[in-house]
Each structure stands twice: as structure tokens, then as C-alpha cells.
Amino acid sequence: MTTATSSASVDREPQLLGQTVVLIGGSAGIGLQTARLARREGADAVLTGRDPEKLERAAQDVGARSTAAFDATEPASLKRFFDDLPGPIDHVIVTAGGPHYGPLLAMESNEVREALSDHVVMGLEVARNAVGKMRPGGTLLLMGGTGGRRISRQGGIVSAATAALPPFTAALALELAPVRVNLIAAGFVDTPLSASLLGDGLEVRRQELRAKLPIGRVVGPADVAALAVHIMANTALAGATYDIDGGQQFVA
């Protein structure tokens, strides 16, 4: 690297300077790491989460502008949050919620309904309440996955739930324009949520992925955060799905 290139890298303007990023589910994992990176790129961060104590620790960690503790799956709570949020804002990323696994015939009808609709309904409620305060060119960034593309008995309903998100994202991008809507589809990411789902099997899963993935390592929250900030900063990106799984979907 030349001295001129090195100097340009150090002196570049932060990508999100003067912008505001709202993180729905920003107290841990991908949301918290995205908040850290957004702050380093010059943005203000507004964090939300269910647990007030965890949220306060996260806010102190990143120097958040403000926080709000509520359940993002409750439409009335989402509406109240955005009604009370000072505008304008630039970006909203939704990392709240998690996948639903299990054999189809073992699920009750209400469980199937929730599994198929949770992320779509939450994304729609966030969109309808946030769009009036978002600047043109900002982005609503949703989270999906690549794991559900491989249909299996163990995964059950997750394949159908995963398949619904890319066309939903594209259709919503047309309705919200000039606000952009995009989807990150992640594979296994080494987060507290993954730890809670796998329990004692976490380290075994890590070792398996290190051995099999083309990248030779496990994907972490920082990897996803880097993609999220890039999507926020690049105003040519709209209505698209961006995979980040280290090649997991291509190996057995």
C-alpha cells in the first residue's frame, strides 16, 4: 500500500456522518454490533429491545442517542415508539425475533401462523410507522436466512418462512420508494441467540462450520454489521436480498 493510499484510507469521511440509525433489537448480537459500526461511521444510534437492563448496558457501550424498551412484535408498542421518536431518521434495521424450527405435523395451527408471518408482519408494521419520518434514500433493512433454503425434516416450517421474505422485501421496496428496503439473509451467525438455541452443542457446531465452510471460519456479528452498514451507505441498493453465510448453503 502506498503512502497516498494509506492516507486516503485514514482520512476518508465516515459513511453515515450525521445520519440516524434505529435498531429494532439492538441490545445484543447483530443489532448491537451494527450499532457499534454505525457509530464509528458517524451515525447516531437509537436502540430498542425487550430487556431494559440489557438495553441500558448496550446504550452505554455504543453511546446511543436514546433507547426504548418494548416488545417489537406488538403493533401498538411499535406505533407508540415511532410516534414518540423525534425525526427525521435515515435507517431502520430489524433484528428482533428469531427462527421457528420443528416438524410441521407437530406444530399447532397458531404456531404455523406465527412462524409464517412473524417477520413479515413485524417488517410491515415497522415500515408503516417509520416511513413518515425517514429521509429519502434511507433504508429499511430486514433480516432473513439462507439455512431454510435447504429443506429438511428437522427444519420444518422454516423453509416456507424463509422463502416469503425476498418477494415481500421487493414488493415493499416499490411501495416505500424513495426509502429503500433490503434484506440480509444470514446463515449461522455466532451470537447469543445461537448460543441459547444450541446450548451444549454450540462448540460442536462451530467446529463443524470451521471445517466445512469455504471461508474456513464461523460468521460473526461483525461480518453482518459490515454488510448492513454498506447497504445503508450505498444508495443504489433497493429491493434486494444479500446472502452472508460463508458459503454454508453450498456445503452439506
Average pLDDT rating: 91
Hey, roughly how much beta strand do the residues contain? 15-25%
The rounded distance between the terminal residues' Cα atoms is: 39 Å
* Total separate domains: 1
Report the CATH topology name: Rossmann fold
Tell me the CATH architecture: 3-Layer(aba) Sandwich
The CATH homologous superfamily name equals NAD(P)-binding Rossmann-like Domain
Enumerate the spans where pLDDT stays under 50 for 5 or more consecutive residues. Answer: none
Q: Residue share in helices?
A: 40-55%
Describe this structure in words.
The protein is 45% helix and 17% strand. The chain is of the alpha/beta class. The chain has a single domain (15-245), classed as Rossmann fold (3-Layer(aba) Sandwich). It has a seven-stranded parallel sheet, sandwiched between helices. The longest helix has 22 residues, at 109-130. The protein is globular and about 45 Å long. The chain starts with a helix and ends in an 8-residue tail after the last strand. The mean pLDDT is 91.
Keywords, separated by commas or semicolons:
single chain; 252 residues; alpha/beta; Rossmann fold
What does the secondary structure layout of this molecule look like, with pairings?
Elements: H1 3-11, E1 20-24, H2 29-40, E2 44-49, H3 52-62, E3 66-69, H4 75-84, E4 89-94, H5 109-130, E5 134-145, H6 158-176, E6 180-186, H7 192-198, H8 202-212, H9 221-233, E7 241-244
Parallel strand pairs: 1-2, 1-4, 2-3, 4-5, 5-6, 6-7
Helix pairs in contact: 2-9, 4-5, 5-6
